[in-house]
Amino acid sequence: MDMKKLGLVLGCSLSMSLAMGQNVEFVKENFAQNKEGFKEAKKRLDEGNDIFAATSKKTDDAYRKKFYKEAIAPYLDAYAVNPNNALLNYRLGVAYLFSDQKAKSLPYLEKAKKLNPAIDPELGFYLARAYQMNMEWQKAVSDYKKYLATLSTDKGRAKADVVNKYIRESLSGEKLQKKPVRVFFDNAGDLINSRFTDTQPVVNADEMVMLFSSRRVVLPDGKAQPDKDKLAHDDIYISTKVNGQWTVAKALDKNINTEKNEVVVAISPDGQRFLFTGDEGDGNLYECVLKGNEWSKPDELSKEINSSARETSATYSYDGKTLYFVSDRENGIGQGDIYFSVQDAKGNWGKAMSAGPKINTAYDEGAVFLLPDGKTLYFSSEGHNSMGGYDIFKSVLENGQWSEPENLGYPVNTPEDDKFLSLTANGRYGYLASSRLDRSQGESDIYRLTFMGAEKHMVLNTEDDLIASTSMQVPLPVIMPVLDLKTPQNIIVQGTILDAKTQKPVEAKVEVIDNLRKEVITTFTSNSATGKYLVSLPAGKNYGLAIKRDEYAFHSENYNLPATAGFRKEDRSVTLQPLEAGSVLPLRNIFFEEGKASLLPEATYELKALVALLNDKKSLRAEVAGLTATQEASQPLSESRAKAVLDYLVANGINAKRLQSKGYAFTEVKSEEAKDGSTQEHGIEVRLLAK
After folding, report:
1. What is the pLDDT of residue 7?
2. Which CATH number is correct for 581-691, 1.20.140.10, 2.160.20.10, 2.170.150.70, 3.30.1330.60?
């Protein structure tokens, strides 16, 4: 029989004194007129008590969180028949405190205190926790202080340290709640979320790929997962954007998802690789790489990153050469610390180094995310000025030093655990999973955050139209104050690389070059199936992009970014020309002294690439063309500069008989170099000729 229906009989079976709020013991004498209800309720109560007793003996909070909540369902069934039992209310409240819905604990713990204040010595402590979870800050502080007074000076010292921390959190929470940040939460909708637990969303830099973990019933092979959270496991799901909308999330293949837990923790800015933690009992990090349309089998990261301890979170740098990660290895500052490792020229990870005491605390750092600007770090911590559990903080690397971590504020952070945040390249949009917001579809849903920045008295543009057909807006209190949103200083360059003749995708190398230092910073590869590529270029450098593929002429781009370049996205699709007569190579990284034909050192890398190309294709000749991009530009100067490039080629081993140079007047310039308007007044291009 339905336990709620059985509970309706309670009003006829209990005396007037019991109905007035006295403690009602779970004995059959109190349910003489509701024997069937009592029998079923007692059975469910015993089930809950067995779970509660077994879980109470554990000291691991992760274990408690996982299994305490299994007592909630049987306890609620028992509660439907007897809501006036002090011990049941107490245990139900405690179970909720260890669940993902901690705020629900308060009415049960308050009722337990009303029915029997002496039901358990820890009631005062848990009631204070419930007040903190419900942001009743002063009540929390008051009850924490009362509980402190009950602790002995010796045995209670460790517990007193914990309680004092909770008092500091409550005071911090009160302060932060008074100055909430301007942020909107949008539920990602039913194409992403399910009625189960959906967690840890990560998005790439241009917000076109999302990965997340979910405890859904259906496995990748179509078999049903058990419909009990303690038996279900995490699998990784993916969604991509089409016409501005997320597609239906699909589980990754079973070469990645297994019958154990796979929890995604990071995706690269270009969306071509991701990291996850596998449940092999080792707590290690694994990487998968997108090869065309298929993800590779997981590859375990090296021992410089993975250790005998647990590595639980990670994030890629913009160039893929640095990995920040969280580990609870020995000799750290706290329980879990943030470390980083740098790749050497051979692609091997170096020794892990601590992010330092400005970031790490004596408590636990739980997750980490680095913006593609290469210097803005978001991380979760139980330390600093947290308002409870894990809060999300931001710190910026300036001149080799991390800034003082800044709490992202309420309502991004709450008294509960706010741990994993993934942001788009501009830092304005983020994704997190939460169970604390209204209108969630499951135990934990994925939300899109929009940080509004300073309030402006103007109509928002279309980018701020937050309600899409597959999403729903979550009402939150009116929010006025502002989180200090500093615009990331970087540019995102993205596009597709195609064969100029066939217009089919080409898998090509994309080299990012520091022109001043004359060296390659990093190399990416475009996707073989789509031709897509994406690179992030932090401000403050003169960058060259060299797009290369065997048997094709290389393609050149230049981005000279001042330190205050701001943020922008640029679509730059490229067609690679076959390495044959008739092909034209605009050279966008050939630099001269102003008004002169003297080559600057910044031109060295691209000049060397041109030498290599001509050495590889000795059957071709080349014309070095000096271009005047404006009518005012000097054609003689263009001729001199073309001759300077020719002389460099000859000096570096190219037969002069294969070369010629020419300066072109403005009216003769028809190349892509002049059309896009992105280069200097004078440009250089190389035209390949037959012998």
Report:
1. 47
2. 3.30.1330.60
Q: Is residue 351 left, alpha or beta, with left meaning phi > 0 and alpha meaning psi from -120 to 50?
A: beta
Q: What is the mean pLDDT of the chain?
A: 87
Confidence (pLDDT) at 454: 62
Extended beta strands in 65-215, E state: 183-187, 198-203, 209-214
Among candidate residues 173, 174, 216, the one with its CA nearest the CA of residue 194: 216
What span, in angstroms and rounded, lies between the C-alpha atoms of 214 and 252?
11
CATH of 201-425, one of 3.60.21, 3.30.1360, 2.120.10, 3.40.50: 2.120.10
Q: With contact defined as beta carbons under 8 Å apart, do 535 and 520 qualify? A: no
Distance, in Å, from the CA atom of 673 to the CA atom of 558, rounded to the nearest integer, reads 11
Distance CA(523)–CA(163), nearest Å, equals 50
CB 220 within 8 A of CB 250: no
Taking the C-alpha atoms of residue 491 and residue 545, their distance in angstroms, rounded to an integer, is 13
CATH placement of domain 3-177: 1.25.40.10
Least confident of 230-244, 298-312, 431-445, 543-557: 431-445
- Please report, rounded to a whole number, the percentage of residues in the chain having pLDDT higher than 70: 85
Quote the radius of gyration of the chain (alpha carbons, Å): 31
The span from the CA of 486 to the CA of 453, in Å, is 9
Separation of alpha carbons 90 and 93, rounded Å: 5
Where does CATH 3.30.1330.60 sit in the chain?
581-691
Give the lowest-confidence range in 224-238, 334-348, 577-591: 224-238
pTM, to two decimals: 0.87
Closest CA to 523 of 679, 514, 491, 531: 514
Q: How far is CA 447 from CA 127, 152, 285, 450, 473, in A?
A: 30, 45, 25, 10, 9
Q: What digits encode the pLDDT tens for the residues 536-581?
A: 999 999 999 999 999 999 999 999 999 988 899 999 999 999 999 9
Provide the 8-state DSSP code for 404: P
CATH of domain 489-578: 2.60.40.2190
CA distance 146 to 151: 10
**Tell me, what amino acid is at 28?**
K
pLDDT digits (tens, 9 = 90+) for 127-172: 999 999 999 999 999 999 999 999 987 767 889 999 999 999 999 9
Query: Exposed, middle or buried, 525 (CB in 10 Å: 0-12/13-18/19+)?
Result: middle
For residue 272, what is the DSSP state? S
Distance CA 170, CA 164 (A): 10
Contact 232, 219 (CB under 8 A): no
| Paired tokens of 527 | 């996707």
Residue intervals of the chain classified under CATH 2.60.40.2190 are 489-578
